[in-house]
Write the structure tokens for this entry.
Amino acid sequence: VQLVESGGGLVPPGGSLRLSCAASGFTFSSSVVSWYRQAPGKERELVARIRGAGSGISNYADFVKGRFTISRDNAKNTVDLQMNSLKSEDTAVYYCYVPLWDSWGQGTQVTVSS
């Protein structure tokens, strides 16, 4: 199982970023995929997750509802996280996670700062 995140960077408050998680080594289309984040000095926390098997049902942490959108492309084996209206408190390393395999990506840094 391999998960590779991309798309992080530095963005001013109110800006947008789109993260992508490229997956390989397992049956992607039927798997739940999650995005987590970890800020300095804080525990890792769930940001959003999306179900597989064609449902596409997604769940979000309260602190990102209305600002972030998770989506998947089963043809490309990718899960994206569109992040809008970013705040300084969104600064963290963002990780892709597949619970079925307890597998994490290496993370991508998101920094929201003017």
Remarks:
- The CA atoms of residues 91 and 111 lie 5 Å apart.
